[in-house]
Amino acid sequence: MTPRNILITGASSGIGRATCIKLLKAGHRVIGIARDFSKFSCNDDAFTPVTLDLEAITTLPTQLQKLAKEQRNIDAVICCAGRGQFGSLEEFSYEQINALINLNFTSQAYIARAFLPILKQQQRGTFIFIGSEAALQGSRKGSIYCATKFAVRGLAQALRDECSKSGVSVSIVNPGMVKSEFFEKLTFTHGDDAANYLLPEDVADAIALIINARAGTVLDEINLSPLKHVVQSKPAG
Ligand SMILES: NC(=O)c1ccc[n+]([C@@H]2O[C@H](COP(=O)([O-])OP(=O)(O)OC[C@H]3O[C@@H](n4cnc5c(N)ncnc54)[C@H](OP(=O)(O)O)[C@@H]3O)[C@@H](O)[C@H]2O)c1
Predict the structure, then answer these.
(1) Which of 15, 122, 155, 233 is 20 to 30 A from residue 178's alpha carbon, by CA?
(2) What global pTM score does this model have?
(3) Using CA of residue 187, residue 191, residue 194, residue 195, what is the dihedral sign?
């Protein structure tokens, strides 16, 4: 295994945190982006936390260009940061629509814009997006969330076509419900049975499969789901 320099967003919690732990254990150097690292205290010298609000879309390009200049030897970028917000379309304010699109889609496109030139110049590299089952099928109360995930999937597919000649692979992982902090502010969750949810570590395993694939091989998309699809409303209050 060749140690690599891997940038990952959403590193402080859930899927991103589990992926950081797995990559660090495997001997990689990890640069993690999030707003609040109190949820992931990591003393590993190979881990560099970078505090950045990916929803602050107007200042993001400058901050990403600065980071890309500092981190010129990145081998892989994993876009994991995101949040869920669900409801009928008319329950969203116009500002809420923009904010969710900014975090779940526009910030991913900006990160790709900032780091792809580096990977292309190196003639090697891996870009991994975390989509969702919501990137595959639209569903009730998910109009904006599904739209952002469809958009991420479209971005991944187009970039794959655009980048392959430059030696850069692009993959997307589409999980079903994952037991993480994602559900903390939502009115529903997965059921308690272990067959009703994926663990963040399950998704980290899929990401590792992509990272470890033989050069010249691309795992275009990985779709993984819990055995049983259960959506449970939380008690009100
Ligand atoms: N959990 C699921 O059922 C599920 C299913 C399919 C897909 N997904 C997708 O998987 C990804 C990770 O979700 P998760 O389950 O790991 O959720 P999570 O535990 O809530 O983690 C979300 C991560 O995104 C970061 N983040 C949120 N807003 C941010 C912002 N404005 N700027 C920078 N970082 C921000 C959070 O860090 P800070 O709060 O510290 O900023 C955190 O590290 C998301 O894209 C989500 O849509 C989740």
Answers:
(1) 155
(2) 0.98
(3) negative
